[in-house]
Predict the 3D structure of the following.
Amino acid sequence: MSNFISGEGFEKTFRFGRMILEGTGVTVLLALFTVIIGFILGILLAIMRMSDVRPLRFLGQDRQGRPRNNRLLVAISRFNPLSVIATTYVEVIRSTPVLVQIMIIYHGIFSYLIDLPSITILGFIRLNRFVPGVVALGINSGAYLCEIIRSGIQSIDGGQTEAARSLGLNKTQTMYSIILPQAIKNILPAIANEFVVIIKESSITYTIGVQELMSVVNDVRGSFFIIMEPLLVATVIYFCLCFPTSKLIAYFERRMSRGDKR
């Protein structure tokens, strides 16, 4: 037990100090780009899920415009392909492990369909590893942010939509000018919390060679055959990234809720 954790182990770990700093930077960049991609994807998916695109709507009515009694035709007339696609995407992504998704994106798409150049950015970001990791995490995050954004949109009073329509705004103008700005304000804390979650989940990208914190831990273990010391260092760094961010989110959430009460 005396060798379980030792000062010598920490000394060996900090020999990789530069790589630890670079790995921390990669972790933060992974989280940042993932949230951006996930947010854009989440908005698109939320709008698709809430859309009213029914190309077979005419099957639910007869020539006089009256509802048919045929239940099958009525059911087909309600078919919304955009909503089905978005719902299927969200359910599949949320019901499968993120590790499996990363492996499929990296080994299935970026190994056979997309050939990225083996170049290094900023001296330590390997493009052909970093991009697949960001894409996989962004696809995963988009499914969760979709539900966050959809709940934010649905929380807006329906009377505002009616008021906007009475002023002559169409559905698209109402959504982008009236509903979305208010919904985003309401869900900003949840989006920021997703950023914290991604910081922690990004550790799994070391499995495809992304040089983030857990990859550095693996390098230290392979060089000196120690594990607890680099793991503890990584734990402290993750804590220093996530805890202040969580407190900052809570602070702004209180400020925003205070403003709503006035």
